[in-house]
Amino acid sequence: MIKKIIDLVKNSQIPEANKYYWKYQFELGEDHLVPYLAKQGCFFAGDAVCEIGSAEGGALHALMQAGASYGLGTDISVSRIEVGAEISKLADLNVEYVEHNILTEPLPEDWVGKFDLVLLRDVIEHLEDTELALRNIHRLIKPGGFLFLTFPPYNSPFGGHQHTLAGNFFTKLPYIHLLPNAIFHKLIASGRENDIWEVKRLKNIALDAGKLTKAALNTDYSVFKQEYYLLRPVFKMKFGLPPVKITPLARLPLVRNFFSLEAAFILKKNAD
After folding, report:
1. For 7-18, what is the mean pLDDT?
2. Which of 8, 183, 190, 238 pairs with 91 at a CA distance of 20 to 30 A?
3. What are 257-266's pLDDT values in tens digits?
4. pLDDT tens digits for range 207-243
């Protein structure tokens, strides 16, 4: 079945860029997310799963292949969820895609309390109100269900997402986002306007593990698991590099905030 869906996507008329993003999302799901979440007791065959910021939905498709009964993908990018819907149709997978902003738009009633597991991968650091996002997602999850989220702590080498600014040598350097604004803004001035705006916005949000933990506890979750990575699991799909955990060392704030390229949290919704 896994080979079948990859072949279906490979031989489809889907744009090559979308195929690339979908493929590494799917491989991340199949190689890392499914076995990790199953091992932690957070994912079982028959679960209803949701991903906020799903893009083309590769991770959702991996969960469906592993036995999930229903999937929902939401994103603010219509073009990317349209690709996800096309792939779901090609592979005959029960995944629905909806354009939705978790911060600003109301939740449809049929989503409330529906999901055993929600994914929020590399999205939370972009959301201005961390607590509001977690509170809204809390409403999606069944009592005792789980939220799995990942993000790069802001003070980590590329936590400012400066590497997304193409065509500028300085933006490839680690930690430049920690420079004073007067210097940092000059270094990124040659980037695309929308990218510059986003990088500046992230500097104001500056999410780290401490802020995330506080927001989770304030919104009626318990912290079920924390992991910290020097090399992120997705690097295996992108660059052929194996993941490297530094979780034991991350008890030290300096390590946790400045050297972990990914913080991965499993939050559990407290039972009513």
Report:
1. 92
2. 238
3. 999 999 999 9
4. 999 999 999 999 999 999 999 999 999 999 989 999 9
Residue/partner pairs of 193-201 with CB below 8 Å, 24 or more apart: 195/164, 195/165, 195/166, 196/165, 198/126, 198/161, 198/164, 199/160, 199/161, 199/162, 199/164, 199/165, 201/126, 201/128
User: In this structure, what are the phi and psi dihedrals at residue 264, rounded to the nearest 5 degrees?
Assistant: -120, 120
Q: What is the C-alpha to C-alpha distance for residues 54 and 57, in angstroms, rounded to an integer?
A: 5
Q: What is the pLDDT of residue 270?
A: 86
- Report which of 265, 266, 262 is spatially closest to residue 151, judged by C-alpha positions: 262
State the Cα angle at 101 between 100 and 106, rounded to 5°.
Answer: 80
User: Which residues are bridge partners to 115 per DSSP?
Assistant: 141
Query: Phi and psi dihedrals of 106, rounded to 5?
Result: -65, 155
Residue 1 CB: number of other CB atoms within 10 A? 10
Residue 66, exposed/middle/buried by CB under 10 A (0-12, 13-18, 19+)? buried
Structural tokens at position 42: 């957070």
pLDDT over 70 (residue 1): no
Alpha-carbon gap, residue 202 to 215, rounded angstroms: 17
Q: How much is the pLDDT for 272? A: 63
State how far the Cα of 236 lies from the Cα of 77, in Å rounded to an integer: 26
CA distance 63 to 197: 34
Residue 141 parent element (H or E): strand 141-151
Helices (H), 92-192: 130-140, 181-187
Please choose, from the candidates 50, 94, 101, the residue with its C-alpha nearest in 3D space to the C-alpha of residue 75: 101
222: left (phi over 0), alpha (psi -120 to 50) or beta: beta
